[in-house]
Structure prediction request, 296 residues.
Amino acid sequence: MNNENRVWQWAAHLVMILFSLSCLLPFVLLAMSSVTDEKTILQNGYSFFPKQFSLSAYEYLWQQSSLVFNAYGITILITIIGTTVSLLITSLLAYPLSRRDLPGGTFFAFLLFFTLLFNGGLVPTYLIYTQLFHIKNTLWALIVPGLLMNGFNVLLMRTFFMTTIPVPVLESASIDGASEFKMYYKIVLPLSLPILATVGLFQGLAYWNDWNNGLIYVTNPKLFSLQNVLNRIMSDIQFLASNSEIGSQAGESIAQLPSETFRMAIAVIAVIPVLIAYPFFQKYFVKGMTIGAVKG
Prediction:
């Protein structure tokens, strides 16, 4: 390797290191802010090296442990069920659309693309789910609206099937007597792990971070997801802190609640499961995105 190539290589490494730090440092700052004393943040702002540490935010969060743990269970349950069912529906829709011999395939692909541009709106959607499907205040209210939330995932998976699954293999299986459904789960799915992992990660993150469906369709606290519980706790703290001028002793103590550090602690406990799960999908994620996005 000559000197010019070596310089470019070191420059590329330097750029990647800076880019990696720009992605990593916000999480470090988030974690450090969650264990910083509330008064220190108010006086000096956020810092990687706080002058005074405090676990008051996590202590307050622990006082709400029963509510938080129940919300964790609800969120894990809807994420697993929703992601699994959504992957099944998405792949079952994408596979026929990837077949060039599908009658009317272009028309159905256009209908799918149309949903990316227009939707029915919030009020008609709410009326359909509550008046027709009666899913309000049920676990299905957190699962059903997100099953086919984005046609982009279907188009991504369709493109992967079209560019990756060899047509001669499907034709050989058809000549040997395999049905379409048997080709789907015996050939297509085993060869499509990268795109299944990629779309599964998209759907899993969508279910894990979703709070809109819980806000609209759920009023039973036992069915609150993690994001809904954390959002409501945060709102309660802000409301009580902003109304502490009522003058009561309880109001003054409530005003001392660590609202800033609590916000950071909420973000930490919400993002930890995602950080743990991501490395298991990373090796499939890049391949699924690059191949599925071609002509997508």
